[in-house]
Amino acid sequence: MNTGVISSRYAKALLLLTRESGRGEQVFAQARALLKNPEKVPAPLEEDLRKLVLLVNRNGRGWCMRFILNDFIHLYCESTGAQMVRLISAVDSPGLYDRVSRLLDGKVYIDTEVDPDLEGGFVLVVGDRMVDASVKGQLERIRRELSAKNQRLV
Questions:
Q1: Residue pLDDT, tens place only, 78-133
Q2: What is the Cα–Cα distance from 59 to 40, expressed in whole angstroms?
Q3: CA-to-CA distance for 154 and 150, rounded, in angstroms?
Q4: Which tens digit of pLDDT belongs to each residue from 45-75?
Q5: What is the per-residue burial (b if ≥16 Cβ within 10 Å, else e) of 83-100?
Q6: CB-side neighbour CA atoms (13 Å) of 83
Q7: Which among 26, 86, 92, 134 is most buried, taking Cβ atoms within 10 Å?
């Protein structure tokens, strides 16, 4: 069974439904919240999202709800010209979020994560591009470079 086809069809239907109802932004926010923390369902589930959940469960496709929401988020961003950004930093840095928002033109949705293993710096993922400005990443690049040079010497 092709999960991609199933989830994209439901996601497109949800996008069309939200366009008609004008509740795209609210459904988008709840979809992001559900993907971040699936155990914590928003108390009043948005009507369009509630209809989708009922339809998906009635058709026995509840197992692909995560894929549907993920596809919906990407489709919604494409349709509104917004960008999804993932920012992983060693410590919580609100100033960094503001800089990223100003650097990228248009509407930006930033998913943040704190990963102390980075030891310093940040990793920024925009679409299919990644900027690794972390201490951990720099040390890994140095290790690989030294390893490659040592192999040539032997």
A1: 999 899 999 999 888 888 888 888 888 778 898 889 999 998 999 999 988 999 99
A2: 23
A3: 7
A4: 899 999 999 999 999 998 999 999 999 999 9
A5: bbbebbbbeeeeebbeeb
A6: 18
A7: 134
Q: Which residues have C-beta within 8 Å of that of residue 24, sequence separation ≥ 6?
A: 15, 18, 76, 80
Ranges assigned E (strand) in the chain: 83-89, 108-114, 121-126, 129-134
d(CA 40, CA 33) in angstroms, rounded, equals 8
Q: How many CB atoms lie within 10 A of CB 104?
A: 15
Task: Assess contact for 133 and 121: CB atoms under 8 A.
Answer: yes
Cα 28 to Cα 49: distance, rounded to the nearest angstrom: 9
Per-residue pLDDT, 23: 92
As a whole number of angstroms, the distance between CA 88 and CA 122 comes to 6
